[in-house]
Structures are given as structure tokens and as C-alpha cells.
Design goal:
Layout (H helix, E strand, L loop, with lengths): L4 E4 L6 H10 L3 E4 L4 E7 L2 E8 L4 E3 L4 H13 L3 E4 L4 E5 L2 E6 L2 E7 H7 L7
Antiparallel strand pairs: 1-5, 1-6, 2-3, 3-4, 4-5, 6-7, 7-8, 8-9
Helix pairs in contact: 2-3
Length: about 120
């Protein structure tokens, strides 16, 4: 099992809002109001980026592309993307960043990350 990132926001996330926002932004959803997957397309492929559990959204990314997609979804929902250790991930000034206190780590330019696709991190 990988490292989990959660989409968090002050107001509860309703399925109808999730479905509307995802559809408008070009994401896909497979499943039901109770459980499903959020999918993003790259080239001819469709890749799972998050899991919906009927009230929350989370993902276990294996690439910068997946982190960037999760950050996009979070921003579209007016939410924060938060890791297990309390760090957050965001898109700021065209960059995907991990923020932990006053420290920031840049993953890179969002356009370049999305264009590169879901290449899995090497261990």
C-alpha cells in the first residue's frame, strides 16, 4: 500500500458536486454515489487517480502526474490536498508544490508534468 493523500475541505463533499466538477474539468468517474474511482486521461489511456468512498476522496499516487492530477481536483473542489504526515500539495504560479510548514518542494511545472504522463516513480 502506498502513501495516501486526502482531499480535505471545511464543507462536506456531496457526490452531485463531485460529479459536476469532474465532468466540467474532463475527468471521468466510474462507480456509484457510495464508491468509485476518479480517472484522468493521458494519450489513449485512462488512469485512476483517486478513490471516492461516499463522502471523501483520496489517492495513493505513484507518479508526479498523479500528484498533479490530485492537486487539480482539489483546487477545482475548493479543497486542500493533504498527506499522511500533514504536508499539503498545491498548484501555485503554475508549479506543483509540496508544502510543509515554511518549507516548499517543487515537483515542477504543471503543464510539463501533465504532458509527461503517469510515468511511475522508480524506487
Amino acid at each position: 500500500m502506498g502513501y495516501e493523500l486526502r482531499v480535505e475541505r471545511p464543507a462536506p463533499l456531496a457526490f452531485a458536486e463531485l460529479a459536476t466538477v469532474l465532468g466540467q474539468a474532463g475527468f471521468e468517474f466510474r462507480g456509484s454515489q457510495e464508491a468509485g474511482e476518479v480517472l484522468a486521461r493521458h494519450g489513449d489511456g485512462v488512469h485512476a487517480i483517486a478513490v471516492w468512498n461516499g463522502g471523501g476522496l483520496s489517492g495513493t499516487p505513484g507518479s508526479d502526474w498523479q500528484v498533479a492530477q490530485l492537486a487539480r481536483v482539489s483546487a477545482l473542489l475548493g479543497a486542500r490536498l493533504v498527506g499522511e504526515d500533514g504536508e499539503s500539495y498545491a498548484i501555485r504560479d503554475g508549479l506543483v508544490e509540496q508544502l510543509n510548514g515554511s518549507a516548499a518542494y517543487e515537483f515542477g511545472k504543471i503543464d510539463e508534468i501533465l504532458a509527461a504522463g503517469p510515468a511511475v516513480w522508480s524506487r
